[in-house]
Amino acid sequence: MPKWPTDLKRQPTMWQALARPGERGKKRKLRVYDLFCGIGGFSSGAAQAGHHVVLAADMDPRMVAMHRQNHPFTRHEVASLPDDEDLLQLPGHDAWKTMDWHLHGSPPCTMLSAAKWDKTNQQVNEALSMIRWYLQLAITQRPTSWSFEQVAVRDVLSACEDFKIQHPLKFDYTVVSCNEYGIPQLRKRVIGGTPWLVQKMRKMAGTTPETHSHVSHWTPVPKGYTHIQYPKWYRRSKGQTERKKLDADTLLIRPVDSPGYSITCTHCNFWTDAKGEIRKSVTPREGARLQTFNDNTLLPKNNLLAQRMVGNAVPPALATALLKDYTIPPTTTTFASDSSHAVHRPSSPSLSWEWE
After folding, report:
1. Which end of the chain is more exposed for a tag (fewer CB within 10 A), N or C?
2. CB-based contact 118:77 (threshold 8 Å)
3. Is 14 a domain residue?
4. 55 domain-assigned
5. What pLDDT is recorded for position 12?
6. Is the preceding peptide bond at 82 cis, omega within 30 degrees of 0?
């Protein structure tokens, strides 16, 4: 490996260090820091991809306690972010010089979800403020790579687009459909973060076998049932706080040999027949399998709490797709969703180029 000059007054920038001969294109093991960890969907996926989860933080002590049972060698913090940011003890913006680390955050999405019909403008603004805080934290900390997961709604997409305009070299995002990554759900999510990781997710879409996204591929289907039924709610009229459940013939029903809809955290899903005439509740364990958790994952004994935890989790298979075979790209191009925004970095280290 060529030696670097020893008489330089400053250290090479991060992208210069990553461009050193012999470093790029090699698989790397990451230290993962999981914020808003929940029960540990992203942590489980990162571990399955071969990385070490160093930190898991969440404001709900029950989530942290269950995460601790499934990841006993991880440091856990009950932290109300951003107020308790000091508890995180993140490596800092210079840590990339000595180690590879990945920062992930899934800020609470309840107040942004379209299914939350009684949210107020103040609650929506607070949720968006949390997203903006995390995005700025990731830029400030300068990890080797970072990621962000959120519901695909207009407010979130608008916030992501504004942030991308401000930091075109550091941030990119895309909307993914989970079934394109072998997850048995038609759930759509925003995935953002380091541009080349986002580009990797775009390239991987649809590369898994179609049968891997079938409900029946992930969990045994009870005998006599051929479909899975999902609840759907709507407001009776504008301005009213009442809501009414749809009739059985208009409920969302999917065959088990196809992807289903999202696993919810508040309403129970059911096994059923094609007409929705017979029903059997989907257990929390079955729901966890449909979220791509393995059977070794511990769940609370309380079924309602278990359902809430599972429904709020990031599907581990999504995290595995993001971080498996983790390598820095062999080129020095920062990808953007639009090729007109692509920025070509120098192929060899240049002292004239600094971190943006």
Report:
1. N
2. no
3. no
4. yes
5. 42
6. yes
- Find the mean pLDDT for residues 118-128: 87
Question: What is the C-alpha separation between 255 and 226, in angstroms, rounded?
Answer: 6
Distance from C-alpha of 134 to C-alpha of 129, rounded to nearest angstrom:
9
Same domain, yes or no, for 249 and 279? yes
Rounded CA separation 257/221 (Å): 10
The range of the structural domain enclosing residue 284 comes to 212-311
Regarding whether 219 and 89 lie in a shared domain, the answer is no
Distance in angstroms (rounded) separating the CA atoms of residues 53 and 34:
7
pLDDT number for residue 16: 43
- The band of 176, judged by pLDDT with boundaries at 50, 70 and 90, is very high
Calpha distance 160→131 (Å, rounded): 9
Residues in contact with 195: Cβ distance below 8 Å, sequence separation at least 6, in sequence order: 169, 170, 171, 172, 334, 335, 336
Give the Cα separation of 329 and 254 in Å (integer): 39
This prediction has a pTM of 0.81
Cβ-proximal residues to 38 (8 Å cutoff; 6+ apart), any chain: 58, 60, 63, 67, 106, 309, 312, 313, 314
pLDDT value for 251? 63
How many other β-carbons are positioned within 10 Å of the β-carbon of residue 15? 20
**Count of structural domains within the chain:** 2
Please tell me the distance from the alpha carbon of residue 93 to that of residue 97, in angstroms, as a whole number. Answer: 9
Count Cα atoms within 13 angstroms, Cβ side, for 280. Answer: 12
